[in-house]
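> run fold Thymic stromal cotransporter
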Amino acid sequence: VVMRTWIEPVVAGSQVASAFYDTALLLVVKNYYNQTNTTAPSHALEDAQQKAVSDFYIIYNLVLGLSPLVSAYGLSKLGDRMHRKIPICFPLLGYLGSKTLLLLLILLGWPIEVMYGAAAFNGLMGGFTTLWAGIMALGSLGSSESRRSLRLIIIELVYGLAGFLGSMASGYLFVGFSDRYREGTVLVGCSIACYAFCLLYSIFVLTVPKPAASCPAKAKSAEEVGSQLPAHKETAAAGSSQPSESNRSTPVSPSKLIMIMLFVAAILYDLAVVGAMNVLPLFLLREPLSWNAVEIGHGNAAGYVIFITSFLGVFVFSKYLRDITMIMIGVASFSAGILIMAFVRWTFLFYIARAVMLFALIPLPTIRSMLSKHVEGSSYGKYF
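> ok
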């Protein structure tokens, strides 16, 4: 019964599917614009292709990023009020539909602009924003406050391992079957199969875990309140070192200032990471690197190794450091790595930059963990 509460199969399956899809989409778009620019001179072909691919991804990422704004909050709120599976199943259905459109595009020769509609459908069904919030809410529900940071980073670890394996295999799958099938058909088909598994698992197997004993919705004993306040003094509403009698029997009310600061920190950091990662694939396609499908798969896999190193970082740092310190380490790691990435001209330097980013994924799960300690379990989905 406990195994049915595990969200990890959904995390792993969806991330393998996403790794397959990301590689397939990039190479399908590249090949599409390569065919449409066959009449251009060879010296101008690469620049024209790079501009076309960049323009496509700018629009695609804008649609993919903005369309969830319409539905994400509503789906998360429905998940809090009605059923925790709602913000998981709806996005998975959106993923399944949008990836099917890419397969039809490859098989039927549709124009690449169809993928703008696929991105909009994916986003309107909640997209990654809603899916990840639902996953984090389920992970938080079944864990105690003292172990929540570790629990959430374990989910990130599974996400990273799955992405690593999927990325390593994606380049070979794309190239290996291109002589018998249209390029990308097998890769996108595998992605669709993984999303179908995740959707069926979420509907028929996954059960919502019972809240941990330390859930804020229940009254807390004096010992529980006393043990939590010193570890997070910056989030206490009162300035005294000892909780009052009223705080001993009721949940600690969240500080609005702390909540706002955590939200702002998460949004700014996420903007920096997402912005950099969206530009990176375009940089890999042209000189000085000019990577092929297999090399792009390896490069994506190197990015997912960061999930493993970030997990190890949280596992060790959480024993000795406060959450704020861990967040600062993660921000410094990403900033240094992306600075090196700006000057990459050789493949080995790309991997050095990735290695410097080894703790770059610590901040967001740690911020979510801090947020979860200040809100009731019934509101996790809405806040995440």
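The mean pLDDT is 81.
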